[in-house]
Amino acid sequence: MTIGVVVFPGSNCDRDVRWATEGCLGFPTRFLWHETKDLTGLDAVVLPGGFSYGDYLRCGAIARFAPVLQSLVDFVDKGGKVLGICNGFQVLTELGLLPGALTRNRDLHFICKDVDLKVASHRTSWLAGRQIGEELTLPIAHGEGCYQCSEDTLRKLEDEDSIALRYVDNPNGSLSDIAGITNYKGNVLGLMPHPERACDPLIGGIDGRRILQALIDS
Asked: Is 94 a catalytic residue?
């Protein structure tokens, strides 16, 4: 079981993810430079947080053209698991693997703090075993984490039970308190909070461990 972590110019959480997946959970993990197209041998791929390509134009707008993401679309179509964290979530929306967009926070400030979340769906393996309404705490660190979509898209997300996580106390103005969503198949999850920073009880709690564990668990 091997996990790939994409490294864009400007990524700053790629090593955090590898520390969590390999150091805490024991999953073999390798870095994927943005120019590679080779995803062979991987069971899951993580798009980490940071500022891919400096977040010029829009967050994730340039990254979505990276060669590695051309291969990622086929990887997803074949059932491969993909986790997009913070900037990775933004990239997934730009790429079209998840609907909607992430815009500037409601108060136009960068927010870095722990937030309380509620499980909104356990339809997919990402949150399997958790109860609807169960709370967990994860850190956020973003300036553009306000989730937006059309009314029709929101209704579709609700109908398909694709809203994975909601904020208890919405920090950024996200529509319907959305903190994370999945695709219809359930093999792609995008979320603004950072589960990789909540894998060790000494430095941030362990609520992120079970989310990352789902990279391998089916």
From this structure: no
Annotated catalytic residue within 94, 142, 194, 199:
194
Rounded to 5°, the CA angle 63-182-193 comes to: 70
- Strand, helix or coil for residue 158: helix
Strands (E) across 100-151 are located at: 101-103, 111-119, 135-142, 146-148
Q: List, for residues 152-199, the tens digit of each pLDDT value.
A: 999 999 999 999 999 999 999 999 999 999 999 999 999 999 999 999
User: Which of these is catalytic: 13, 86, 146, 199?
Assistant: 86
What is the pTM (predicted TM-score) of this model?
Answer: 0.96
Q: Write the class of the CATH domain 3-213.
A: alpha beta
Question: pLDDT value at position 57?
Answer: 81
- Does 158 participate in catalysis according to the annotation? no
Cα–Cα–Cα angle for 40, 16, 46, nearest 5°?
Answer: 30
Active-site residue flag, 151:
no
pLDDT at site 112: 97
Domain ranges of the chain: 3-213
Task: Name the residue with higher pLDDT: 151 or 205.
Answer: 151
Helix axis angle, 67-77 relative to 87-95, nearest 10°?
Answer: 80
